[in-house]
Structures are given as C-alpha cells and as structure tokens.
Write a structure and sequence with these properties.
about 5% strand, about 675 residues, three-stranded mixed sheet, Neutral endopeptidase, domain 2, alpha/beta
C-alpha cells in the first residue's frame, strides 16, 4: 500500500543444491537443444524450462525469479508461523505475529464487512466545504491513500546531503496516465471495465445502483483530469523535468484554492521553507479542479481511493471485486493467491525490516557478502578501464565520469541498524486498523526526515526483497540479501555462471549511474550537467540505437516495446553484461575461473547461459501487455536477445555466422 523491495546450514540451499550432473550451476534440463543459440538464444537457454514450468493459476507470470521469491516467501512463512505459535513477547517477533495473525483471521474479517472503513467514510461524507479538504487529504495521506498528489521527503537534488519536502503527481486508479487516453479498442475496454469496477465497489459500500454509477463516473472524470495534467512515464525519466525547487510560500501561491498550510498542520512534517514541486503543471490543474468540481464528486473520489487502497483488508466480496479487475482482467491471473501467501506479503510490506531481521539470521551466509564485494570491485575496475578507453568521450567529461565512478559506494545484504516498529499499536483483532496504523507509522517516519541530514546507511529495500537498485542522489549501488541467492549467485556454482548472473546485475546497477537518467547527477549526487555539449550529443545518438533496436521488438500482435521508456534498463542490461564479461576474462587470466569445459560448455558459454537462465519466464498475454505499457524493463526474452545480439563475443562463444539473428549487423553500444 505504501510507495516504498542465511546463515544457512551447510547442507541446505534456498533452491535445489547443485549435483555432479550440473557441476557448473547451469540448469542443463532447461536448455532446448532443438533451437540453435544463434537463432534464438532465449529459447535455446530456457525453452525446456518454459515447457516444464507452466504458470500457476494464482500467478500472472512464472519465472526463475519467481521460484526464488517462492522460496523466500516460504522462509518468511516459517518465520511468521514460528512467531505466531511460539510467542515470547519480544520484538520484532511480537509485532510480526500480531499483524500476521490479524490478517489470517478470515472469519473475523468477513464478519466485519466494510465496517472498518465506516468512521473514515462518514468523516468524508460530513465534509461541508472545500475548506475542509486539506485536513481530510492529510488524514488519508497519513494512511498511504494516494488522493490527488503525494507529499514526501527526499534528498535535495541541489544539496543531496539534506532531506527536503517534495510534492508530486498522484491519485490515479489505473496503472498510469496513458490508460485514460489511448484510443485502441483494448484501452477503451479497460476504461469501461474500470468504470464498472468502481461502480461495483460503491455498491458493496451500500450505494444504490444508480448512485453507484453516478459516483463512479465522477471518479473517472476527476482521475482523467489528473491524468491529463500528469507527465508520462517516459517524460519522467528526465530529472530536469522534475526539478522545480521553490519556497513553501511560492508553492502556496500557485494553489490558492487549496490551503496547503492547513494540510501541513495535520501532518508531522517539521517546519520548512525549501521544497521541490516535481510537476508544476499538475498542481495548476489540481488547483483548478478543487475550484471547479462539485464537493460531492470530490468526496466520491476520496471514498473510492480509500476503499481501493484497503480493499484487500476487507471481507471477501471486496477482495474478490478488487482481484477481479486488477488480477484477472489487467494481469490475466485466473485465481487469487491463498490467504497465507497474501498475509505473508502484507506483513512483509508493512513490517519489512522486522521480518528481514529474522530472514537474515536464517537465510544469508556471511561469506556470500565478502564474495559479492570482491565481484563488485572487479566489475568497477572494468568500468574504470572502459571509461579510460572510450573514443567518443572528451577528456573533460571522462575525468568527471571517473570521479563519479570512484565515488560510488555499495551496500550489500542488510542495513547496519534495524528499524524499530514498537510504537505501532498492533492487535490480532483489527487487521484493517493494523494496516492503517502501520502505514501511518511509515508516513511519519518519512516526513520527519524533512530538514535533516540524509541517512546514507538506510536501505530502500528490505533484505528479503528480490531486487537491486542504484540511488543517483547518493551515488550508491544496493544489493539486498535475497538477490544474492541462486539462481543469481551460488557459492557452489562455477564463477563463470556467477559472473553471467549476479555479475550482470552488479554491472547493470553500476551502469545506472551513467544511463539516460543517472548521468544527470554528479559523483556527490547533485543534479548537475557535467557533460560537454558534444559528448551529450554523442551519448544521445548512441542511445538512440538502443531505443530503435528495442522499439522493433513486438511481443504481441500490434504491440511494440517502448524503447524510450525502457532505455535506462536496456542500456544497463547491455553495459552490465559487457562489464561482467570483461571481469570474467580478467578472472580467467588470473586462474580464478575454471578455464576448461564444465557440463560440456566453455567458460564463455557458461557465462551467457548464466545470464539468460536467470530470466527464464512464462507470461500471460494480459500481464505482458500491462508490462510493456507500464514497466521500464523490457520483457525477459528481449532482455536476453536484445543484449546478446549487440555482443560480438556471444557470436564467437557459440560459433554464430555473420548475419545470424543473434548477431546484429549494426551492434548498439554506449558504454
């Protein structure tokens, strides 16, 4: 609901342990040898895996990463069951047991219906004028309900050691703004289905059908106006378009119809003057909307966003209605997840570091952290060599790029200090209330940072989150413990495979510091143009090659990838795998990697298979469509073939002839 991803016994593995038959770590059973690697490397590397692993009924996709997530969730489930059945009254066990137990009490939740929302909905219904809106919006924002706009703390892009206030566009019920405006039949059908869904939710709250229909139309009208004033996802990749520092007084003057000071007075944010208004045009439109929309329509919108945010905490009719639209229709998932899985995810979402503390104790080997650190250093070294050797970059920009690279720091595994959740009032008899109070805690924790120094030790993902990220305002790369498990990394696996898997991830995140977004920030995290005009032009020209390449991929009839939206991720995939490959060659030269064949594969072949097999995936068409329209990552098959066709080293490794599909005639390369 919020905006915010062992020590193992020596005989256990989070995924099946390696056997002699698979001494390298490559999943040989996944390979479809009937497909030539030079024709379609993704199908070659993953074809049999895809045939053998159909998508479960409660999933919209199923891949190697999902296998890992499933194992992580099982570990978290075990932690929660232990806490629930062996309460010792200590933290964080008491907290996670209370929230998990409340979520699992399905009979109590069903008996309550929508009563947990009744007081807040009554409060909204009693709003007498637009002057009452700021206080109510603040109450809803405290509970992580994204009405109209978002307000949060973040490092100042002009002084990244200091936290300041930010306001940004928000408030939509469809996945992103273009869903409200696309003209194709599928998009029109999606809007119609969404309208029906909102109407159904109002009926579940007790509205008569005609009233529910009128209120749903009011919601759609308001959200469409908000969407029209919002920047597209592609435009938001340019931080220059999101950087509008101003004073609190100046911002208030731009929204005279909304008493922002009254809004702030209901929140725990310290007093401040400096803030960043990320999309000024959005707030101009919001100001007009507050003045022009009827009070009843505004209240209908608030009620909808409230029930939409907390639908999963309510009785079964609300859960089913929410899943029917967002799960079945948008993602194509036939079946709702079992309740225990949803409760594990809810506890993870709301009390992530409390659960993460237990996860690290059970599931993260200390030696892994040391080995990953060594890999990070080796890949950073290759990046330094690459920057030195770039022929298209001037010396002036090169020196700044090197300074930024040398300033990169990294965080591996888990935070230095664990978050204290003891102030949250949690009870096993009030699931929806627990969720609200946990959200309120997180909102307060975020807002009180305004005006204070940035805590650069903080992880923005929990240890059990399968992911990794680069933070441009802090110039650091971050790898949670969950990401350092098989198939991404295994201590027993051949290092050529590890370099292809986790090595690519390391190189990928490192490259984000120099992609179309990250390159706008300097080594200290300041939003600053450190490029010469000629280097800037050359970077854009080289990047356009990647944009054009991926825009040519079509996963479904009539649907092409948005190469511009996915430029950062595609560029990081390409450069990240190249950096990992160079690190592999260096390790081979030093004798740190087995030079001979393992499982009948050369080190270079094992490397490329190590990369491809972390991305083996099956995806439902509905989810694939949503993915292409909203996600800056390309679908997995194109993350594989789009990269290898740009690397001549791949063609050499597998003996591909010139002109083969996996050998680009004109390969793209930026870094």
């Amino acid at each position: 609901m919020r905006k915010r991803l062992l020590i193992l016994a020596s005989m256990t593995c989070i995924l099946p342990c390696l056997t002699e038959a698979q001494s390298s770590g490559i999943d040989l059973s996944a390979i479809d040898s009937s497909v030539s690697p030079c024709q379609d490397f993704y199908r070659y590397a993953c074809g049999n895996w895809m045939k053998q692993h159909p998508i479960p009924a409660d999933k919209s996709s199923w891949g190697r990463g999902d296998e890992l997530r499933e194992n992580i969730r099982n570990t978290l489930h075990s932690i929660l069951e232990d806490a629930a059945h062996h309460p010792d009254g200590t933290q964080p066990g008491r907290e996670i047991a209370a929230l998990y137990g409340a979520c699992m009490d399905e009979s109590r939740i069903n008996a309550l219906g929508w009563k947990p929302l009744a007081d807040e909905i009554e409060r909204i219904d009693l709003i007498g004028s637009v002057t009452d809106l700021p206080a109510e919006i603040a109450r809803l924002h405290e509970r992580s309900i994204p009405v109209f706009f978002s307000f949060f703390s973040y490092p100042d892009w002009d002084n990244p050691r200091q936290m300041i206030a930010y306001v940004d566009q928000s408030g939509l019920g469809l996945p992103e703004r273009d869903y409200y405006f696309r003209k194709d039949p599928k998009s029109a059908d999606t809007r119609a289905k969404y309208l029906e869904h909102v109407e159904q939710m109002f009926e579940l709250l007790g509205d008569k059908p005609e009233s529910a229909k009128t209120r749903a139309q009011a919601v759609m009208l308001i959200e469409t106006k908000l969407a029209a004033a919002s920047l597209t996802q592609t435009a938001r990749r340019d931080p220059i378009l999101l950087h509008h520092p101003t004073t609190l007084a100046e911002f208030q003057a731009t929204v005279p119809n909304f008493a922002f000071s009254a809004y702030l007075s209901r929140l725990p944010a310290p007093g401040f003057q400096r803030m960043n208004v990320m999309v000024p045009g959005f707030f101009t439109a919001f100001n007009s909307l507050v003045a022009s929309a009827s009070l009843e329509n505004l209240k209908s919108y608030l009620v909808w966003q409230y029930v939409h945010t907390y639908a999963a905490t309510l009785s079964q009719p609300f859960v089913d209605a929410d899943f029917s639209f967002y799960g079945k229709y948008l993602s194509g998932t036939p079946q709702l997840k079992p309740r225990w899985q949803r409760c594990v995810e809810a506890t993870d979402r709301e009390l992530g570091e409390a659960l993460g503390q237990n996860f690290v104790e059970r599931a993260f080997a200390g030696q892994t952290k040391e080995k990953i650190q060594q890999m990070v250093v080796s890949i950073e070294s290759e990046m330094e060599k690459e920057i030195h050797s770039l022929t298209w970059m001037s010396d002036a920009t090169r020196q700044r790029a090197l300074a930024k690279l040398l300033g990169v720091t990294n965080k591996i595994g888990y935070p230095e200090h664990w978050r204290d959740y003891s102030s949250i009032v949690l009870t096993e008899s009030d699931y929806e209330g627990d969720e609200e109070r946990a959200s309120q805690f997180e909102t307060h924790r975020d807002l009180i940072k305004i005006g204070h120094p940035v805590d650069r030790t903080e992880f923005l993902m929990t240890p059990q989150t399968m992911g990794a990220y680069y933070n441009p305002s802090q110039n650091n790369i971050n790898f949670p413990a969950a990401m350092l498990q098989s198939p991404f990394y295994a201590n027993m696996a051949d290092m050529a495979v590890n370099y292809g898997a986790i090595g690519q991830v390391i190189g990928h995140e490192l490259t984000h510091g120099f992609d179309d977004l990250g390159r706008h920030f300097d080594g200290d995290g300041n939003l600053r143009d450190w490029w010469t005009p000629q280097d800037d032009a050359t970077f854009r020209q080289r990047s356009q090659c990647i944009v054009d390449e991926y825009s040519g991929f079509s996963p479904l009839p009539g649907l092409h990838l948005n190469g511009k939206l996915a430029l950062g991720e595609n560029g990081a995939d390409n450069a990240g795998l190249r950096l990992a490959y160079l690190a592999l060659l260096d390790a081979l030269q030093k004798g740190a990697v087995a030079a001979g064949k393992l499982d009948g594969l050369t080190p270079q072949q094992r490397f490329f298979l190590g990369y491809a097999q972390i991305l083996c995936d099956n995806i439902r068409p509905e989810h694939l469509r949503e993915w292409v329209l909203t996600d800056p990552h390309s679908p997995t098959q194109f993350r594989v073939i789009g990269v290898v066709e740009n690397m001549p080293e791949f063609g050499q490794a597998f003996g591909c002839a010139a002109g083969a599909p996996m050998v680009a005639v004109k390969a793209c390369r930026v870094w």
